[in-house]
Amino acid sequence: MDLKKLSVFLKDNGAPAFRIKQAADAVYKNFAASWDEVPVLPAALREALHKGLRIHSVDNLETLVSKKGDAVKFCFGLKDGLKVESVLLNLLPEKWSICLSTQVGCPVRCPFCATGRKGLKRNLSPEEITDQFLAAAHYLKKTRSQKISNVIFMGMGEPLLNYDSVAEAIRALAAPDRVGLGQRHISVSTAGHVPGIRRFAKDFPQCNLAISLHATEDALRSDLVPLNNTYPLGQLAKALTDYIGSTKRRVFVEYVMLEGVNSSRSQAARLNSWLRSVAAPKYFVVNLIPYNRTGGQYRTPARERIKVFADLLETMGLEVTVRKSLGEDISGACGQLAG
Ligand code: SAH
Ligand code: SF4
């Protein structure tokens, strides 16, 4: 849904100005998925809208619900036949987060990630990003009478490589006269696109930033996150120091745990020193993500090993969480989205 298109359409059809707010509220606040669900509009106008302006630019082709019911994966079809996925996650009772995609595929090509394997097909438009949210919100309302409270840009693609569209989607989600989520409920995860981090700090100082770090030696990080060749650790460190300096916000550090690659005791110590070189430990939450299998060469460390790594970091004064993996049975876990 694009508010500008909606306004122009209503004006062209001779509707008075107050209809714009009614139509926009129906879409952004009540999550109507078709104009039939908007009885407040006159029948003739609904008919015109029905013929001329679809509410969602994405088609929900398939919905998969995990066995426990705590994860729901949507496969959305786009106008040109490509597909993207979004995942609803029930992390706390009655609290749902949605993980949104920003690109079809991803140009960064991290070797452990299913999305990166195929490279980039194209960027998503602002509408295609917002509409994943609106379609999922419609589903949650219809099936469970619940609402989405948080948005994480952690689905397919590198959000900061599609900056303008992601920024427009954030505005639609945060604006009080549209979805009205509030920037503090919105998080962007990046593989470390330095110019994007700098823009994001200026444009959205209230949103949350997550960095997919995964290693603190340049050679290893370049293998795991090839964007590191363009923006190596030194540049990333500086961008994060500046980000924390200007926003005073904590940064979420994501670290995918790969057996025999990045999860030794000495690598935990390195991670601690690297973070301390960026800012005081209170500015970080380290989120360890046990590797989810995507068919490649990597293996997940044993649970005890992950615990040792986490405990070490905690002893060094860092806040650490180990990510609970939801939705593995529907291939909806981190890194498993392949469209
Ligand atoms: N491109 C962005 C956001 C999408 S990826 C980024 O990389 O941050 C979201 C998160 O899933 C990243 O932290 C990524 O490193 C992680 N991830 C990718 N593949 C994974 C896998 N197979 N197992 C666990 N986490 C994975
Ligand atoms: Fe792209 Fe993120 Fe996957 Fe890397 S982990 S390939 S940056 S989506």
Explain how this protein is built.
Helices cover 37% and strands 21% of the residues. It is built from eleven helices and twelve strands. Helix 5 runs parallel beside helix 6 and helix 10 packs parallel to helix 11. The chain has two domains: 50 residues, Orthogonal Bundle (DNA polymerase, domain 1); 272 residues, TIM Barrel (Alpha-Beta Barrel), CATH 3.20.20. The strands form two sheets. A ten-stranded mixed sheet has the order 1-2-3-4-7-8-9-10-11-12, covered by helices on one side. The chain starts with a helix and ends in a 17-residue tail after the last strand. The radius of gyration is 21 Å and the shape is elongated. The chain is an alpha/beta fold and 339 residues long.
List keywords for this structure.
339 residues; alpha/beta; DNA polymerase, domain 1; TIM Barrel; 10-stranded mixed beta sheet; 11 helices; elongated; binds S-adenosyl-L-homocysteine; binds iron/sulfur cluster
**Rounded average pLDDT:** 95
Whole-number tally of structural domains: 2
Helical segment tally?
A: 11
N-to-C SSE string, H for helix and E for strand: HHHEEEEEHEHEHEHEHHEHEHE
Distance between the termini: 22 Å
List the helices and strands and how they pair.
Blueprint (H helix, E strand, L loop, with lengths): L2 H10 L5 H11 L14 H10 L6 E7 L5 E7 L5 E10 L2 E5 L3 E3 L8 H4 L2 E4 L2 H19 L3 E6 L9 H12 L11 E5 L3 H10 L4 E5 L5 H7 L8 H15 L3 E7 L7 H14 L5 E7 L12 H13 L3 E4 L17
Parallel strand pairs: 4-7, 7-8, 8-9, 9-10, 10-11, 11-12
Antiparallel strand pairs: 1-2, 2-3, 3-4, 5-6
Bound molecules: S-adenosyl-L-homocysteine (SAH) and iron/sulfur cluster.
